[in-house]
Amino acid sequence: MKPKDPYVKHIYWLARSEEAHMREELAARDIKVKSAKGIVCTPLDPTNKISSVSPDIWDDTCGRQGSWYRTSERNEQYLVVSSFELEGYRSRKAAVITESDFVPPKLATLEDKEALLEDPLLKERLPDRWQRVSEREKRIYLKWAKRFGSKANDFDFLYLTHTSNHANFISPSLFVEDDEGIIPYSIDRSAHLCSCCVELFQILGHHYERKLVAPCAGAVVFARLTPDRYLLVQKAPRSLIQVRENAKFS
Q1: C-alpha neighbours within 13 Å on the C-beta side of residue 4
Q2: What is the mean pLDDT of residues 18-43?
Q3: CA distances from 170 to 28, 114, 137, 235 (A)
Q4: Which of 11, 79, 83, 188 sits a CA distance of 20 to 30 A from 93?
């Protein structure tokens, strides 16, 4: 049996003209770039070799969650997620994502989550649209939570967890640390998380060299990621990127 290829995703942010040029270059090599439809996390699927997410997709199925993108410096840029490095686009590279065997030393308590919600940096960054949740969304997230083994029956609990988890990548209170600095991590299990894409794609927490991100319920459903298996996000330096194959948390 052929061994399974290691999970690796290279993350790029391109202007419209750069994305079009990249497509032309790859087409000349008989490489087709998929266009994400309806949802931004499908490029994370292990079977997707290279995909592009246009700005309008952030307004589609996950329009509320996309408010983090629309209120960020990435707004109007194209996201490209590739299983291989793109030659000539090193300066546009944001991160490399690999699978990790990380086990969090602790998950957030109710008190931890409430404290994160009071952080002034979160309040400054929190999009207005994120805070307006439809009744339909509430039902969907409660259904997904139950599907992945949660006993949560109150959306307020899920919203608190969704928001405080994002806050932990803005102003971390739960993290691990080594000689190279702190490494924020997702504060709860996949069943209780939402929009991990904003951490994986470097919209939130991009100023940290490394992050450990658990897939949200949506990414498990739509991108076939493994529940509760953390992904290591390594910030791409402006010089040559090198994936730390023997990193402490990989």
Answers
A1: 6
A2: 96
A3: 41, 15, 24, 15
A4: 188
Count of Cβ atoms closer than 10 Å to residue 31 Cβ: 14
71: left (phi over 0), alpha (psi -120 to 50) or beta: alpha
d(CA 174, CA 170): 11
Helices (H), the chain: 16-27, 67-70, 110-117, 120-125, 135-147, 155-170, 197-200, 217-223
Location of structure tokens 């971390």: 172
> For the whole model, what pTM was predicted?
0.92
Instruction: Find where tokens 């990127």 sit.
Output: 241
- Measured CA to CA, the distance from residue 42 to residue 67 in angstroms comes to 18
**102 CB-contact burial (10 Å; exposed 0-12 / middle 13-18 / buried 19+):** buried
Which pLDDT tens digit goes with each residue over 125-159? 999 999 999 999 999 999 999 999 999 999 999 99
Which amino acid would we find at residue 222? F
Domain ranges of the chain: 8-98, 105-225
Query: For residues 95 and 87, what is the distance between their CA atoms, to the nearest angstrom?
Result: 15
pLDDT digits (tens, 9 = 90+) for 61-108: 999 999 999 999 999 999 999 999 999 999 999 999 999 999 999 999
What is the number of residues in the chain? 250
